[in-house]
Amino acid sequence: QKIVAATHNPGKAKELAALLDGRFEVLAAGPLGLPEPDESETTFVGNALLKARHAADLSSEVSLADDSGMSVAALDGAPGIYSARWAGPGKDFAMAMDKVAERIEETGSEDMSAWFTCALAVAWPNGGPAVVVQGEVHGTLVFPPRGDKGFGYDPIFVPNGYDQTFGEMEPHQKDAMSHRAVAFEKLKAALFE
Ligand code: ITT
């Protein structure tokens, strides 16, 4: 069975392929030449559904999309669905992580709690109902950033119960308990149980 991974983010594509664990032939959106849709929805679930539907319609293959982001308690949940956009067109996450630190400092809050959210959506090319699920992982932010094994905001996020940031963990450790892994378990339950 083929599946289109409807993402243009290589960090995500790698984690999704690891979670799918060879059970599907994964076709990547980039090499397929699928354009990136405008993420016009206001929730993770809405944007995941939009991206999965868009890829399924264009590729005529079953498509899996991921919409995700990091939310900071002291910033009332920002950057949230705007996590990618905080890094700008140059995808500068060092700058985005600095911005998170600065914004928290401006609030005067000492609350460093944050969480990652991942919505995963699967859509079929015939336009049937899509399936969507959402997973979260909670943790604490640390500055300066630590580790270069992950992507995005991984170097500033320490999941609860661990000492290392997502950026310091081995990929298999992150893949065992991340927001993406939690969502993936729910997706399997929704599709196959
Ligand atoms: P696609 O829409 O093509 O999938 P994107 O990077 O634009 O790629 P999103 O709109 O879902 O994807 O933005 C999610 C951003 O949130 C992403 O760019 C990361 O910076 C951040 N993010 C999501 N999951 C993450 C993770 O596991 N670790 C670190 N940062 C993550």
Description of the molecule:
The protein is an alpha/beta fold and 193 residues long. Helix content is 35%, strand content 22%. The chain contains 6 helices and 6 strands, in the order βαβααβαβββαα. It has helices at residues 10-20, 29-32, 44-59, 93-107, 171-177, 179-192; strands at 2-5, 25-28, 63-72, 113-123, 131-141, 157-159. It has a 6-stranded mixed sheet. Strand 1 (2-5), helix 1 and strand 2 (25-28) form a beta-alpha-beta unit. Helix 5 (171-177) crosses helix 6. The chain is globular and about 50 Å long. The two termini are 18 Å apart. 40% of the residues are buried. The mean pLDDT is 96. The structure holds inosine 5'-triphosphate. Residues 7-9, 12, 36, 39, 66-70, 83-84, 116, 150-154, 166, 178, 180 line the site of inosine 5'-triphosphate (ITT). Inosine 5'-triphosphate is lined by residues 7-9, 12, 36, 39, 66-70, 83-84, 116, 150-154, 166, 178, 180.
* Count of strand segments: 6
| Shape call | globular
- The succession of helices and strands, N to C, reads EHEHHEHEEEHH
What is the CA-CA span between the terminal residues? 18 Å
Radius of gyration, taken over Cα atoms and rounded to an integer in Å:
16 Å
Give every kind of bound small molecule, once each.
Answer: inosine 5'-triphosphate
Mean pLDDT, all residues: 96
Major β-sheet annotation: 6 strands, mixed
The neighbouring-strand order within the major sheet is 2-1-3-4-5-6
Helix/sheet category: alpha/beta
The low-confidence parts are: none
In short:
The chain has 6 helices and 6 strands; from the N terminus they run βαβααβαβββαα. It is of the alpha/beta class and 193 residues long. Residues 7-9, 12, 36, 39, 66-70, 83-84, 116, 150-154, 166, 178, 180 line the site of inosine 5'-triphosphate (ITT).
